[in-house]
Design goal:
The chain has ten helices and 15 strands. By secondary structure, it is α/β, with parallel strands linked by helices. The protein is 28% helix and 19% strand. It folds into two domains: 3-203, L-asparaginase, N-terminal domain (Rossmann fold, 3-Layer(aba) Sandwich), CATH 3.40.50.1170; 224-334, Rossmann fold. The chain is elongated. The structure holds glutamic acid (GLU). Glutamic acid is lined by residues 22-24, 39, 69-71, 102-104, 127, 129.
Amino acid sequence: MPASSSSPLSSSLPRIVILSTGGTIAGAADARSKGGYNAAAVSAQSLIAAVPGAEEIARIDFEQVAAIGSQDITDAVWLTLARRITELAARDDVDALLVTHGTDTMEETALFLHLTLATDKPVVMVGAMRPSTALSGDGPANLRAALMVATHPESRGRGVMVVLNDTIHGARDVTKTSTTQVETFQSPNLGPLGYVTPNGAVFLRPGTPRITLPLPESAPLPRVSIVHAYAGMDDLLIKAAIDAGARGLVLAGVGDGNAARTVIAALAEAAKAGVVGVRASRCPLGPVLRNIEVSDDALGLVAAGLHNPAKARVLLQVLLANGVTTPTTVQSAFDRTD
Ligand code: GLU
């Protein structure tokens, strides 16, 4: 869909394109007190109309890429988004990109884009926990905060950021932690990149050099399955994933990315057959490091470092799509924190 200009404003303001995909931020209920709502009912134009002063921050254009709850996001949508952002970012008259998105899988889309977008222009993802018709809907404030971040000079070169609840998160670490609360997004290991204050965005640390991977050419991306570990687990789900054609397996392991002997043995067996096995953890905090409880060197496995299971899956998919398949080269990518 073509971009349409929102308002005739001073050409000295930065130009931002808002790409909308759906989610609660675009949600509407038929009563202000109602909990249930349709997740992609409101256009980005209407959302911005509810943000006082937006026209003083930027000239804003809009494009709708999808209108879905983010539980339905697919790698095909990721590729469409990434291609369109790449085209727009290459234009001299576009200064930054905003992506509106449901919160459920925002962290996965954020990491996919962070890994594959080579542009230095700011790309900010934003959503809301309350639909636009709710009492104290958080969408307008989050959109305003996202505009403040997208137009901040220190936002360049940081890859993809997620902005909700006046907090700026990096794509690698950010995760949704609460099913209901507006402070749901946290960066549990590395901490937030910064905050949005009444005076504007404030960054707590400088950006770090980023290495990107080539954008995969087509969907579907290689199948990578996540297997959640639990007490009394056996290898049934690992075997089922391999039978279904998985080229990678992510263990959402107990503790330090561990699991019952039979499960680790099944992962090692799969690794011998060329199915890349990554050990992540079901714990919300802390890295999974190599060769502590599990002998990764001997078994041909990869430790997820600071990537949670969902992030580990996205990273492994992008690596496999780029032909990165040996445990050593996959491990180097998992060791990165940029
Ligand atoms: N499940 C929907 C989604 O992720 C709504 C949740 C939200 O956006 O907060 O798009």
